[in-house]
Amino acid sequence: MGLITKAKGAPKSDSSSSGGGVKYICNVCSQDVTATVRIRCASKQCPDYDLCVDCFSKGEANLHHDPRTHSFQVIEPHSIPIFDEGWGADEELLLLEGAEQYGLGSWADIADHIGGFREKDEVRDHYVKTYIESARFPLPERASPGDKRLSDDVPREEFQARKKRRIDTRKEAIAEAQNVVPTAPTKPTSSGPSCHEVSGFMPGRLEFENEYFNEAEEAVQHMQFSPEEGINPATRMFDPETELKMVVMGIYNDRLTARTDRKRVIFNHQLLEYRKNLAQDKKRTKEQRDLHQKLKPFARIMSRPDFVSFSEDLEKEQNLRQAITQLQDWRRMRLSTLSAGEKYESEKAQRIIRTANQNLGQFDRITNGIRPGKGGPPPPPETAQAVTEYTIKELPVRLSPTNATFTAATTNGALPTPPPGQDVPIKRAPLPTVPGFSPLSLSADTSPDLQLLLPEERELCSKLNVQPKAYLAIKDAIFREAMKTDGKLKKKQVREISKIDTTRGGRVFEFLLEVGWLANAAPGRQPLPKQPPNALPIALHRLSFLIVHEIGMVATAEIYHPRMSYIINNYVSRVDISPYEIMCM
């Protein structure tokens, strides 16, 4: 049998408990002779033919080996350090052999090839230190055959004892890691195909009643290899019959590898927990189920944590796209508040139901339980999850739409909280005119951006003889400066920022104080009272996101655009905070 390497399709856990690595087996008694002295046949008729010392001393042989005429070699493990105190010569050879077989960079496979519970990071660091960073690159520093300083300083017995202690320590660490969280047997102990969630799976054997390529064994079940078959000593080639059998065995091994790969995906991604996965799937919307169905092929090339994170990120992206699409649809319909959007969706669903009922015949309506003219109110529209999560969920709507009256309480001078969908004008004394300035007549034709102002702001612009575009620029500059000082400014600062005469600048400051968009930072002034605990819920971050995306722009806490004023003030009617606090979220 000779050299035995770990199968490429074997799971990583198969070699983790035993340390992995190359193993040498006696061809007669199948004893492991990897770590002991072994006898290797040197004849060309017996490639990779190894014997243990006991079988060699008794003259045991099989296959083409003839101990009377074949020459042999006595091979003992080269467990002595030559380049590094912690690495033996045998491990150095296996390192180079693994690098040649798997390629540099496949450090996990090379570590499994070396065995001895070597870790991939340890193997990589040793290779870089010994071969790459060597002063005699590409040779190691101690590559001279006469350099025996390490082997003389560290005796073989001491090196073997160190290696044994290292292996025992890592074995214990692996055992402790496996026993930290003991997994209770969730599956029945019986391996019957019908005793568990997935029909046809036998947990005791970790096999299925019908495997992938279930007929793969039929091609090799009657195949036999006789001692006379094999390599012809004269031609050193397989005879035709043996070559055909080897081709069939290669096909069989490929099918076993494909079967193992699929089992690994099933076990690693916990697909056998059918009821749990089914319950999670029922909680998803149709769009989410379709998305997860399309993502399933990626599970074969990803670990479970990576696949779960990958799926959640794509699901979040899909929800954001759906929310943006719906908000853009509302914007095209000239809707600027959440309540208007909800009303639009409700009426849209009712219209669809009425159209469907009109297309049904009389008997079809009776059969479906809908009598003409006596049908109840249609069910409320089912809001998409993305829109619910990013636009409506957790918004502090404190008053029910059925309430006919409400208390107009103000907080921080902000607008009172009206029922959803209604706006309440600011109750204050009329603005006096500014001496020396006649009121300005504003209209949509002569005053650009007039539609972005509240009625009170329009009155202010008219009395101050300021165009809406200029007022928006002034308010933009004031808010930018206020965001740096926690919403507090002095009247002198507002006058300097507005870059207009002191009288009109002071009127702008007083107006912003009155509506609660600014706080006075002058000495002796009382700071703004704290908001009640329920006035600043986490949902305000969602509200900020909605406001920004509904007008088709991207903004951060440091960016403010005058067009947001109109939309922000429409949302103040639903949330008891000032527009400035919304901007600072």
From TrEMBL:
Location, primary (coarse class): nucleus
Span of domain SANT: 82-135
Q: Where on the tree of life does the source sit, at the highest rank?
A: Eukaryota
Q: Please indicate if the UniProt record lists Cytoplasm as a keyword.
A: no
Keywords associated with the record: Metal-binding, Nucleus, Transcription, Transcription regulation, Zinc, Zinc-finger
Mind telling me which PROSITE patterns this protein's record contains? MYB_LIKE, SANT, SWIRM, ZF_ZZ_1, ZF_ZZ_2
State if Protein transport is listed as a keyword.
no
Q: Which GO terms describe its molecular function?
A: chromatin binding; transcription coactivator activity; zinc ion binding
Query: Taking every annotated instance into account, which residue ranges of this chain make up the domain Myb-like?
Result: 87-131
ZZ-type domain segment(s)? 21-80
CC terms in the record's Gene Ontology section:
nucleus; SAGA-type complex
The biological processes this protein is annotated with in GO are: chromatin remodeling; regulation of transcription by RNA polymerase II
- Where is the protein found, in the record's own terms? Nucleus
Name all SWIRM domain ranges: 433-529
Query: Pfam families given for it?
Result: Myb_DNA-binding (PF00249), SWIRM (PF04433), TADA2A-like_3rd (PF22941), ZZ (PF00569)
Q: What is this protein called in UniProt?
A: Transcriptional adapter 2
